[in-house]
Design a protein that fits this description.
2 copies of one chain form a homodimer.
Chain A: H1 10-21, E1 26-27, H2 28-37, H3 44-57, E2 60-64, E3 70-74, E4 82-86, E5 92-95, H4 98-105, E6 114-125
Helix pairs in contact in A: 1-2, 2-3
Chain A binds a DNA duplex (30 and 30 nucleotides) through helix 1 and helix 3.
DNA sequence: ACCTCATTTGCGAACTATTCGCAAAAATCC
DNA sequence: GGATTTTTGCGAATAGTTCGCAAATGAGGT
């Protein structure tokens, strides 16, 4: 049955390079615009399909923004960490904080709640934007 | 100019009662279905408008779910707290943890990052679902 | 380089969630 | 109850995302 190959194509390389070049959560539309700006014409459908694929592979993290529009960013899922997001420029900095992990662990017994995951996001202004 | 009154109407009461009865994040569509199930016929438009209004008043919290669909829950914004969300039933329990606040505060100097807010969500199984 | 075949792409249509405009209905106040 | 303002319902419009299918492209063998 379905032998599933994994072709290397221009659109996929282009999309990956857009994602690789900025530490920000980008919407499909923003990525599409970024591609146009570089002269790479790729359909929006392909952008969406490629993002789905990258997410399935675990190469990117998806996150609906405040308005519900889904945004994506390159992000190693293996190393567990959290994000600090600049309210001004959107730059995302990784926060790899052992103490925080430890703290989250200590909440397992919380309210009879069997904790199996958590998400933490910090907001503020990054060094450059202050 | 626009004297802005604030009428008390059936639809608004019904919608509020739907929200009041369950400690879960509900989408506009789910609220609309809940209304139908109770025999209250209210248009989806009104559900959206009422939710916008409640959010503006600060009575409810909005949160896009994993798929980007926006969900709403009654939630006092005054008392700062976080949420523990059951993966099985969606029940939300408030986590009012002073120690966590304190911890978040201690991160203000993080990476030259001027911290002005944060969001924390815990996931797991609530007591009833275990 | 060429052929074959599976995979991927682009396009436009379809879908879903949400918003908007406007006339009819309901709430408030006197 | 009547006048006035707000709210509602409806259907159309919009925005983000998904889907179907024919044409284009990548991979591998010759």
């Amino acid at each position: 049955m379905g032998i599933r190959a994994d072709y290397v194509t221009r659109p996929r390389e282009w999309i990956a390079s857009i994602l690789a070049r900025e530490p920000r959560f980008l919407s499909a539309a923003q990525i599409h615009q970024g591609l146009e700006r570089v002269g790479a014409r790729v359909s929006l459908s392909t952008v969406y399909r490629t993002l789905d694929r990258l997410q399935a592979k675990g190469d990117i993290t998806a996150r609906p923004d405040a308005d519900g529009e889904v945004t994506y960013m390159l992000c190693e899922p293996s190393r567990h960490h959290h994000h600090a997001i600049c309210r001004a420029c959107g730059r995302v900095e990784d926060v790899d904080c052992a103490a925080m992990e430890q703290f989250a662990e200590s909440l397992r017994a919380l309210n009879g709640f069997e904790l199996d995951g958590h998400a933490i996001e910090f907001f503020g202004k990054c060094g450059a934007c202050r």
